[in-house]
Fold:
Amino acid sequence: MTAIPARPYPYDFVPGHTALVVIDMQRDFIETGGFGDSLGNDVARLEAIVPATARLIALFRRNRWPVIHTREAHKPDLSDCPPSKIRRGNPSLHIGEVGAMGRLLVMGEPGNQIVDDLRPVEGEIVIDKPGKGMFWATGLHEQLQAVAITHLVFAGVTTEVCVQTSMREANDRGYECLLIEDATESYFPEFKAATIEMIVAQGGIVGWVTPLSALEAALP
Ligand code: C5J
Structure:
C-alpha cells in the first residue's frame, strides 16, 4: 500500500486491488461534430486533457494494473435510451441522429469510439453504458468484484456529469475513489471546480482528489 498525497488527506493506493476508470473519452464528447458540440459546447476544453490521461493510462499499463474504459453508448434501436434523454437539451442533433461522425451516442458509430491517443488495448475492459453512471445496466460491479477490485482511480469527462455520477455510484458500492484532477474536464470550468470541492468536502464524502504528478511521484 502507498499513501498518495491528496485532498482531503492521503489516499491509500492498494496495488492489485486498484483499477483505473477512464470515463467517456469518446469522439462524441471531445471532437467537433459530436454530441457535445451539438449541445453548443466548446469541445477544445476536453481535448486538452488527452495528454495527461494518456500518461495516467501508461502508468497503469506499465504496472499491469487494470484499466477500464467507458463509453456513453446506446443500442442502434435506442431501446435502452429513455425518450426523455433523447428530447433533453434542445440540441441541434438528437441522440441517434446522424452527425459528422455517424449517429450520435450510438454503439459502433465512428463518434462513439474512444479517441485515438487513448484507445483501449487488448485485455482492457470497455463498458458501454446507457446512463451517466458506469454501474447502471452494465454489470461492471460484478466484474470488479470478481477480480477483487476495491479501489478506483478516475479520469475522463465530464467532471460533473458522467465522472461525478460514476464516482458517487462507486462510493455507494463501497469503492475507495480517487479523482485525478488534471485528467478530468468539463465544458464549464466552474462546474469542474465545484465538483472537486463537493468530492473532498466533509472529510472526503465522495472520495479523494489529487494531481497526476502526485500519483506519478508516489508510484513506480
Ligand atoms: C454528458 C458525460 N456530459 N460523459 N456525458 O452528457 O459526461
User: Anything to note?
Assistant: The radius of gyration is 17 Å. The longest strand covers residues 176-185. The longest helix spans residues 189-204. The mean pLDDT is 97.
